[in-house]
């Protein structure tokens, strides 16, 4: 007879879970003492000295908040700080959005973009009367799969990235959306697709919208990089604005981690937009009441600091203009790194074509390196990237790009 266990949660009941691959890479990088190691794994902006960058406008907003004699630390409302959520809606939907003017929008402050995706997934799992299945791009942000699975919404994929062209598999994507059961949930990256850096053109977005409308699908936009991708806020929200203008009912998960550099402050927003109808405002009000109940049961009240920073900037014309300049600083540095990397690889005569480096956009690039090559470059050159060959362009700078390009050249020739 075996001795009694001291726990009800044996290894058979609760197996050891694998470490999160991304944060495992970061841990390994930090522990590595190699002098010329390079981190191109984590999705966080770094300056030309590979250091985190606190946006100058964030420092100014922080100073304003610290000197406000009326500042307190009381609970925020369940739906969040109204001065934040209203401006967040204008930012992603457009200040002149017909949906905002017609009171067809309800917005809830969330724990960054992750919390917004989760709140949306939870709401749809509970209330969406269509096909309880979400279609995500292949590949997509890894956390999408876990979030929807956790709320019992099955996940399917539509083709997105072409390994042959290192661009968009547009025909495959359209075919899959056409073949998906009517009234399915379709998750779309608003801009700077994670992890590929490949975005549809506006004309392609229009074709995608036509298919989604024909099949009566439900669009779920994830917007983590507005303004950070191109440096142009309007360009980066063009797809969302187009869908709203076409009268879609949809939801948007919005993060301020990247474009404000507020990674750890977890400032985000979830927006529900209903289609134009006589009772649209009443629909938005009912949805808001249910979102409040879901929020109350999970976090009660959203955190204050990050939202206060964003609100301070978005509600001040001068600070808003400075923020746009900060966005251009970040996006233009990343674009410059793309140009430099491509030029150096072509100068080295590295086997393959490298034009996709500059054709992709945003923080990430799908290099085309295989898993074997990604593991080899980590082992030999101490270059840390995800095993699917995705790199964060923000991890490159004028001090390490020569080393990085030569490491890529070597591994491509050998593996």
Write out key terms for the chains shown.
single chain; 415 residues; alpha/beta; Aspartate Aminotransferase, domain 1; 7-stranded mixed β-sheet; 13 strands
Secondary-structure blueprint of this entry?
Elements: H1 21-31, E1 38-39, H2 56-66, H3 82-93, H4 98-101, E2 105-111, H5 112-127, E3 134-138, H6 142-150, E4 155-159, E5 161-162, E6 167-168, H7 170-179, E7 185-189, H8 202-214, E8 218-223, H9 233-236, H10 238-245, E9 250-255, H11 257-260, E10 267-273, H12 280-298, H13 305-314, H14 317-348, H15 356-359, E11 364-366, H16 371-381, E12 383-384, E13 390-392, H17 401-414
Structure report:
- The protein has 415 residues and is α/β, with parallel strands linked by helices.
- It has two domains: 21-54 and 331-414, Aspartate Aminotransferase, domain 1 (Alpha-Beta Complex), CATH 3.90.1150; 75-315, Aspartate Aminotransferase, domain 2 (3-Layer(aba) Sandwich).
- 46% of the residues lie in helices and 13% in strands.
- It has 17 helices and 13 strands.
- The protein has a seven-stranded mixed β-sheet, sandwiched between helices. It has a two-stranded parallel ribbon with strand order 1-12.
- Helix 8 (202-214) links the parallel strand 7 (185-189) and strand 8.
- The longest helix is centred in the C-terminal third of the chain and has 32 residues, at 317-348.
- The N and C termini lie far apart (54 Å).
- It holds the Pfam family Aminotran_1_2.
- Homodimer.
């Amino acid at each position: 007879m075996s001795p009694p266990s001291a726990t009800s949660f044996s290894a058979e009941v609760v197996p050891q879970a694998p470490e999160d691959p991304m944060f495992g890479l970061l841990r390994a990088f930090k522990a590595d003492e190699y002098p010329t190691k390079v981190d191109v794994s984590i999705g966080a902006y770094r300056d030309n000295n590979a250091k985190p960058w606190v946006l100058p406008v964030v420092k100014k907003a922080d100073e304003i908040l610290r000197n406000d004699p009326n500042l307190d630390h009381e609970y925020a409302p369940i739906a969040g700080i109204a001065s934040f959520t209203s401006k967040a809606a204008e930012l992603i939907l457009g200040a002149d959005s017909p949906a905002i003017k017609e009171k067809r929008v309800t917005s809830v402050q969330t724990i960054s973009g992750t919390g917004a995706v989760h709140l949306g997934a939870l709401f749809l799992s509970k209330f969406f009367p269509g096909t309880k299945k979400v279609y995500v791009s292949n590949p997509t942000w890894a956390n999408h799969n876990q979030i929807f699975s956790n709320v019992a919404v099955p996940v399917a994929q539509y083709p997105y990235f072409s390994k042959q062209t290192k661009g968009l598999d547009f025909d495959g994507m359209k075919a899959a959306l056409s073949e998906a059961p009517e009234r399915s949930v379709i998750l779309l990256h608003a801009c700077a697709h994670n992890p590929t850096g490949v975005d549809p053109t506006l004309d392609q977005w229009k074709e995608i919208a036509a298919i989604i409308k024909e099949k009566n699908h439900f669009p779920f936009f994830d917007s983590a990089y507005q303004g950070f991708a191109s440096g142009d806020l309007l360009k980066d929200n063009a797809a969302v604005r187009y869908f709203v203008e076409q009268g879609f009912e949809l939801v948007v998960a919005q993060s301020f981690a990247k474009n404000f550099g507020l990674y750890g402050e977890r400032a985000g927003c979830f927006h529900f937009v209903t289609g134009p109808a006589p009772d649209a405002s009443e629909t938005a009000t009912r949805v808001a009441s249910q979102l409040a109940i879901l929020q109350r049961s999970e976090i009660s009240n959203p955190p204050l600091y990050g939202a206060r920073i964003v609100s301070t900037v978005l509600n001040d014309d001068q600070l808003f203009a400075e923020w746009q300049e900060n966005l251009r600083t970040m996006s233009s540095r990343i674009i410059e790194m793309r140009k430099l990397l491509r030029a150096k690889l072509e100068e080295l005569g590295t086997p393959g074509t490298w034009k996709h480096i500059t054709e992709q956009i945003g923080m990430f690039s799908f290099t085309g390196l295989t898993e074997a090559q990604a593991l080899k470059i980590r082992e030999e050159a101490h270059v840390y990237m995800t095993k699917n060959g995705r790199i964060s362009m923000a991890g490159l700078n004028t001090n390490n790009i020569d080393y990085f390009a030569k490491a890529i050249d070597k591994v491509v020739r050998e593996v």
